Structures are given as C-alpha cells and as structure tokens.
Amino acid sequence: MRGGLSSYLSKNLREYIEQNLDNKITLSTLSSKANLSEFHFQRVFQQSFGVSPAKWILESRITKAKELLRKNTDLKDISSQCGFSDQSHMTRQFKKMTGLTPNEYRQVTDKRSIIVPVSRFRHGKPD
Known about the structure:
The protein has 127 residues and is mainly α. It is built from seven helices and two strands. Helix 2 packs across helix 3 and helix 4 crosses helix 6. The N and C termini lie far apart (65 Å).
C-alpha cells in the first residue's frame, strides 16, 4: 500500500466517518476496517487525505455543525449529532477551527441570506 489507501478504501472510510459522526470513532476501528495496524493506517491515511484521521474527523464534524447551524438546529442537538461530548466542547473546537463561535457563525450566515426586495432600491441605494 505504498502511496496511500486505494480509492475504494478511501471512499468506504469517508462514508463510514460521515455516517458515524455522532459516535466515537477510534483509530482502532478505522484501522481494522482497512485491515492495517494503527501505525501503518495512520501513515497511509495521512498520505491519502493530507491530514491525520483525527483531524479529518474533526473537520467533518465542524462541516456537519455548519450545515446544522444554517438550519437553525439547537446547539445542544448539534453537538450531539456531530459527536462532541457537550455543547462547550463543540464551541471550543468550532472556534478553534473557524475563528467564530457557533452563534457568531449562525449570525454571519443568517445575515448573508437576507434578501432585500429590489423595489426598495433606487440607483443602488435604499429608498
């Protein structure tokens, strides 16, 4: 397996991680799915994905949290659905990865989705 994981195995691992974000995902579980030792799995995963398994899982959890934040899901539910131990843990990791707290992210994305009716504008300025 020089050079990384096969595309088939990469796809299966990606799907497994996405489907199990609400659960604890261990290096042991992932390496057994690839039928590799933990040490070797970590090396080839990094070659294939460009980041460690732990970083990939965290990034996937943050991505899912962003999706749920845009749907106005409750923060406690988001933290549970994304596999964080609690809301505080999610907030710390989210801020570390994005520079914003989940509430700040929600406010920023809500403002971007506000649509001002065209009739309220004249010559590019509001009436």
